[in-house]
Specification:
about 250 residues, alpha+beta, tt1808, chain A
Length: about 250
């Protein structure tokens, strides 16, 4: 049953179409990892809203004026908290539209992504539009970008595929990699962060084990040295005793 949002004009705006986020688990993973990367990239901005599969209504009173981008980034919001929204209504946000939209292409969507949606985002004035085919079957090249120039989309033809928002994109199979253009550093996925953390923890454990072993070796060496010194002291004492004994006997 679709969830509904009721605007002040009493128009019912569905906030779900009952369809899955992505056509396959591959596409869902790509969407989720891209959303997470965008959240990390824009984490220092208090006016940024990053959503996945959220309905965007751009015309008040027209519930047909809606699209659900796989991922979209909206900047300039006073209250960008996603849980406060079931859908995004441009007229409630001073007419703000997404700064960039992403569609993850699949067998059933790639033609629409390249045709109807491209024309729609161009008409609505979305500054940048990126498409990515994680399977590499339907788009050639698999990563494509478009930038608005004089109200028309122009294909981004640079190999770097850099956004004017300060990030670069690179296709890596299931992942659409986001790279900070200033630092050149890629934004790691949650899985990569966990892997790095586990590796760090493993290295820390190994270092602690090596330190403990070294401490044990040092302690054992100290014990051997102490034992040697004790034997040497006992021998020296015995030699001295014998000397004294011989001296008393007049030998």
């Amino acid at each position: 049953m679709p969830q509904l949002a009721i605007d002040a004009d009493l128009v019912l705006y569905p906030s779900s179409d009952g369809q899955p986020m992505g056509e396959t688990w591959i596409h869902v993973q790509t969407i989720m990892m891209l959303t997470q990367a965008m959240e990390v990239f824009f984490e220092k901005r208090s006016d940024a809203l990053i959503t996945s599969d959220m309905f965007w209504y751009w015309e008040r009173g027209n519930k047909s004026a809606v699209v659900a981008p796989d991922v979209m980034v909206i900047l300039g919001l006073k209250n960008p908290d996603p849980p406060s929204r079931r859908s995004y209504f441009s007229w409630k946000e001073g007419g703000l539209i997404p700064a960039v939209v992403f569609e993850i292409a699949s067998e059933n969507t790639y033609e629409e992504d390249l045709d109807e949606k491209l024309a729609l985002y161009e008409r609505l004035g979305v500054p940048e539009y990126f498409l990515y085919d994680p399977e590499g079957f339907y788009l050639k090249p698999a990563l494509q970008g478009f930038r608005l120039k004089q109200k028309k989309y122009r294909r981004i033809r640079t190999a770097a595929m850099e956004s004017r928002l300060g990030f670069r994109l690179r296709g890596e199979g299931t992942m659409l990699r986001v790279i900070d253009a200033k630092t050149g550093k890629p934004i790691p996925s949650n899985a990569e962060i966990r892997e790095a953390l586990l590796k760090t923890q493993s290295q820390a454990v190994k270092q602690a084990q090596r330190a403990a072993a070294e401490t044990q070796r040092a302690a054992a060496e100290a014990q051997r040295a102490a034992a040697e010194k004790e034997r040497a002291d006992l021998l020296a004492a015995e030699v001295e005793r014998l000397k004294q004994q011989l001296g008393r006997s007049g030998a």
